[in-house]
Design brief:
- The protein has four helices and five strands.
- The chain is an alpha+beta fold and about 70 residues long.
- The chain has one domain (about 1-70): Flavocytochrome B2, Chain A, domain 1 (Roll).
Length: about 70
């Protein structure tokens, strides 16, 4: 978790979603809902926020896969 927490800025934004780690830096300014929605996830476990907004929706799920950089081992 410490590795993810260290990436909590717009210049390096990592987040955990469902035990996978994602580098969302490149997506910040491309997110259709605005950059603030991604910036809220930086350095955190964003599972609940992602699920609440996008859980089960095909396009957001597919987009997210493209940013996966590793697994979060609890």
């Amino acid at each position: 978790m410490a590795d993810v927490q260290a990436h909590n800025t717009p210049e390096s934004c990592w987040a955990i979603i469902r035990d996978d780690v994602y580098d969302l830096t490149a997506w910040i300014n491309k997110h259709p809902g605005g950059d603030k929605n991604i910036l809220r996830l930086c350095g955190l476990d964003g599972t609940a926020m992602f699920e609440k907004k996008h859980g089960g929706q095909e396009k957001p799920e597919d987009t997210l896969k493209g940013f996966e950089i590793g697994k979060y081992l609890r």
